[in-house]
Design brief:
The structure is a homodimer of 195-residue chains. The first copy, chain A, has 195 residues and is α+β, with helices and mostly antiparallel strands. The first copy, chain A, has a domain at 1-14 and 27-120: Jelly Rolls (Sandwich), CATH 2.60.120.10. Chain A is 46% helix and 25% strand. The first copy, chain A, contains eight helices and six strands; from the N terminus they run H-E-E-E-E-E-H-E-H-H-H-H-H-H. Chain A has helices at residues 3-15, 85-90, 111-118, 122-148, 151-161, 163-166, 171-178, 182-194; strands spanning 31-35, 40-42, 50-64, 70-77, 80-82, 97-110. In chain A, strands 1, 2, 3, 4, 5 and 6 form a six-stranded antiparallel sheet that branches. In chain A, helix 7 (171-178) packs across helix 8. Chain A is elongated. Chain A binds a DNA duplex (30 and 30 nucleotides) through helix 8.
DNA sequence: TGCCTTAATTAACCTAGGTTAATTCTTTCC
DNA sequence: GGAAAGAATTAACCTAGGTTAATTAAGGCA
């Protein structure tokens, strides 16, 4: 898989959003990050002021508390833009790490430089807005579920929303996505079998 | 306060973001919503596909669970854009209501029509991106705090972040912002006094 | 001023989920 | 195939916060 192919599929991903984008002004070079299952694209606390594109694979956003407890913010399946909007925009240390759940191919651009070149393109801006809207909406829905639903309900929703993940990833990761421990999840699963 | 003044201050709010915006294409009429303390701009479950501008006042975003438990997603102080990005964009029922914490003056545009007219303006698009980035960043930080910090820590952070609110709003609302009950908050406050 | 309503505190009890640790069940890899 | 490492389950116990309810403190407002 060469650099040109990766860039092409990055652009195709944007083009598919339905806006005309003129890519000719983009001169920024890409970095290529082949990440093995279990490895991190970047860790919590690092600087990650880049725009990442998950070409193939599956990753999770994971943050860990002072006490060492892991929390999986979200799973992301290719093809998709990934990374921390906050870290890109504010250039502050990122609040979570990105870990490959399976072997993944990721490319990246330096966001400031990339945006400086692309902000003049109206089609790109519309795509970027669209992207921000989407991630925001997902966060809004997840926040709502967290507040309104029990852990059991969230588990059932997870199974419905990610049927393909349910049997692919370790239960620990599902638990940390639900905001509970693996032990608690195991209890819930048992209760569901019984009930 | 007449309609023209309100629209002017809406536009001034955007102009202050530092992008040139041509407002001449905007023909949409505004609605004016004077909301009394305690009243709702809209309730959870309604359609709220409008872009709201909080001209003066203070509101909170509040969602309530099946079980009747209130959760305050955020407080918003004027001047600011408010409303549900999700409801605007997807035209689905809104997941939370907006309640005036103090008497507030709000204006609104029908988002679809508004955006249709303004999307051709690059300056506006950049402002909109900037706005989305900001609300997303705030959500990202709040999510992180929720996962990583105890209720006590979150209360102390709240007091530091919103010193002006601390003594202005009822503790019930603070508790619901922290994701705990008023009883639990009272216990925490007592513990802090003692400790 | 005093009444009425709402807000805050306190206490007693309950529960979901956390913690630790022992026990099985799976992978993986030599 | 078998040893070692990692996952999942189960059990016993603990704790933060929820629930209910009784008590006190504060705001409106007639």
């Amino acid at each position: 898989m060469d650099s040109q192919q990766l860039q092409d599929s990055f652009q195709a991903y944007f083009n598919d959003m339905g806006h005309k984008i003129d890519w000719s002004k983009l001169t920024q070079p890409i970095d290529i990050h082949p990440i093995k299952k279990g490895d991190y694209l970047f860790q919590q606390g690092e600087c990650a002021e880049r725009l990442y594109f998950l070409h193939t694979g599956l990753v999770r956003y994971v943050s860990v508390s002072e006490a060492g407890k892991e929390f999986t913010q979200t799973f992301a399946k290719s093809p998709r833009i990934i990374g921390s909007t906050r870290a890109m925009v504010t250039q502050s240390p990122v609040l979570f790490g990105i870990q490959a759940v399976e072997d993944s191919m990721i490319i990246s651009y330096h966001w400031q430089a990339f945006f400086q070149e692309m902000r003049h393109d109206r089609g790109f801006l519309e795509c970027y807005c669209h992207f921000l809207e989407q991630v925001f909406i997902i966060k809004e829905e997840r926040e709502s579920a967290f507040v309104k639903d029990s852990a059991e309900k969230r588990y059932l929703d997870f199974c419905a929303d990610f049927p393909e993940l349910k049997n692919k990833i370790p239960q620990q990761q599902i638990a940390s996505y639900l905001g509970i421990t693996a032990v608690a999840l195991s209890r819930i699963r048992q209760r569901l079998k019984r009930g």
